[in-house]
Structures are given as C-alpha cells and as structure tokens.
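Lab notebook page, bench 4
Experiment: in silico fold of construct C2
Operator: M.H.
Input chain length: 284 residues
Purpose: comparison with the prior construct
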Amino acid sequence: MSRLFGLYSEEPVKLSCIQAKEIPSWRNLGENSGNPVEADGWGIGFYKNNGSFLFKKASKSSKSQRITNITEVISSPIIVSHVRHATVGERKEANTHPFRWGLWLFAHYGKINHFRRIRSKIMRKLPSAYKKQIEGNTDSEFCFYLFLSHLKKEGAIKKGDIDLDAAIKGLKNFRNDIEEFQREADVTEMSELNFLISNGSYLIASRCGSPLYYLCSDKSNPQDTVFFSSETWLQYELIDFDPEKKLVTVSSEKLTDSTKWRVVPDNHILTINSAQEIEIIPWK
C-alpha cells in the first residue's frame, strides 16, 4: 500500500500484500528511490456481505506479519487503505486510519494546520452522538465526524443510505467549516485535505494540497496487477483479477511505471460510482 490507497472494482478483488526488502527491478523510481517512510500504523477497510470491515494496527508495516495474513483473506469490490505517518496524535490504534462508522470508511493523508486552535470549534459543531464516537485525538477523526454531521438530514447515515450528490454537498460544507474556523483562529496556512471516503456504494477521493493519482482499467485498457509503493516499500498484487473487468485505483503516488496514471487536479473531488464511472468536480 501507499500512504493512501483505494480501489473500486466491478467484482470483488483479492489482494495480496508483502513488505519488500528492496525496490523490485521492474520499478524505475529515479530520484524517488530512497528509503521508505517510517510508518506509525496501517489499516485496511473493505466490504463483504453488505457490511464494512476494518483491520488496523498501530505498528510499522515492516514489522508486522499481520498485514500479509490479513490481505490474504480480503476479497472486496472496494478497498480503502492507509499507512500512517503521525503528525497529530500519538502512535496508537485509535489514531490509526481508516476510521469506520456504520458503512462509512474514511482515510486522510495530510493534516489540519494548527488543529489545536480549532479543535474546540469542531467539537461544538458535532452532535453529541458523534462526540461520543471519537476514540483518538487526531485531526483526521474529527474531520470524519464533522463530514458525517453534514449528512444528518440526507438519509439513514449509519446504513450508508446517502446519495452521492448529498455526500459531495456534505464534503463541500465540511471544507467551508474548516476554512471558517481557521479564519476565526487567524490560521492562514492551507490545510492538506486528501481523503478517501466510501459507504460501500461509491468511492470519493478529494485532493487539497498533496498529490493524488488515479488509474482506470477495463477490457480495452487493462492495468498492471502488481504494484509497488516507493513511500512504504509495500508490494501488493491483485490475485486472479479478470483484466476485462472495470477497475479504478486511487493512490497518493503512482504505483507502477505506466503512463496511464492521471492526476486529480488540486482542489477537486474524484467520484467513482457503482458502474466504475468517474467524475471530477471542483471542490470550491
């Protein structure tokens, strides 16, 4: 996995993941061929039998055999994964991504600048039911519940019964809140808001700040099934994947040397629906 990785496939995907000892010969990383980042935790969220599931651990992925054991049993059309490098909050499982509530999965790559100066403002905005759900002390978990709070009038949130347009509206309102809170606190630096969000019916990827890429695959345009992350040195493979099926991959880095990777423009939202159709819309 890269720091932030997600996919949506036409059919359930089996995923295998190992920690590489060296950069594989088939990757040409050039100036990006340095040592992997020092991870503070990792997590994988996925869907099966109409439910959401989550495995995560507050340890280095390079030190954990569990990441290999877990990925060997995952088969899901949607996967949301994250390797954490702590910026806010200590190393512990409650601070490890993805976060889950009902059918919702949420992962964040980046940080809310001067989070401590706006933490109380976010807390006051949250319904009491969401305040009770917060287990850690990361800016990311607060972002998750602030986003969900904007869906409260749109349907049965915990069951994921929210249409895509309403979720996009909620994400835009979430960002308006963050920017308003930061203005009130005299915070001028832009925050990094790269998110992966899913309810099991669609996948949303947002970009604000850090790079974000996507790769589309279908019968006429098959993609590679083996990936390598220069950020984490994790190598993973799609097992028994039918190249004729539709698949969209989203990542914080290009995971292969393919020239077919596309950039999500900054300050835009990428959506993937159940037909694996994508749309890129402005966030502002």
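Observations: The chain has one domain: 4-282. The domain at 4-282 is CATH 3.60.20.10 (Glutamine Phosphoribosylpyrophosphate, subunit 1, domain 1).
Next step: discuss at group meeting.
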